[in-house]
Amino acid sequence: MNLKVKAALAEQLMPIVCCGETLAERREGRTDAVIRQQVERGLEGLTTEQIAGIIVAYEPVWAIGTGEVCPSDEANRICGMIRETIRRPYGSHAADNLCIQYGGSVKPDNAAELLPQPEIDGALVGGASLKAPDFIAIVQAAPR
User: Fold this and answer.
1) Domain 2-141 falls in which CATH fold?
2) Of residues 115 and 104, which shows the higher confidence score?
3) What's this model's pTM, rounded to 2 decimal places?
């Protein structure tokens, strides 16, 4: 992933760095360690300026395409942990300005609960983006 992030940045593209745990990792209580490691490895060797040009998305593997969604308070906690993982090597300015999205089965019925969370800056919408009424409802659920 790290080489792809660097290649995208070199071509002036904005990469979305996705991280997330499997159901087995979650059940084993390894969520935080797995995600921290994914973020650290994915961003290894980047400068603070480069960090400003990326998006990080928390996509729990167990929720993608399953209809399962991470509870909003837990998704918020994990996005906050990702922000703190960025803060250590890159500083508060980079961490506070980083866009962190949630992307695990975002639908009209859960967007209104997920999107107002203080550590979630947006949604990485999958299948629901293919259905105009669903996507419109998700957009309308976003805080203004």
Assistant:
1) TIM Barrel (3.20.20)
2) 115
3) 0.93
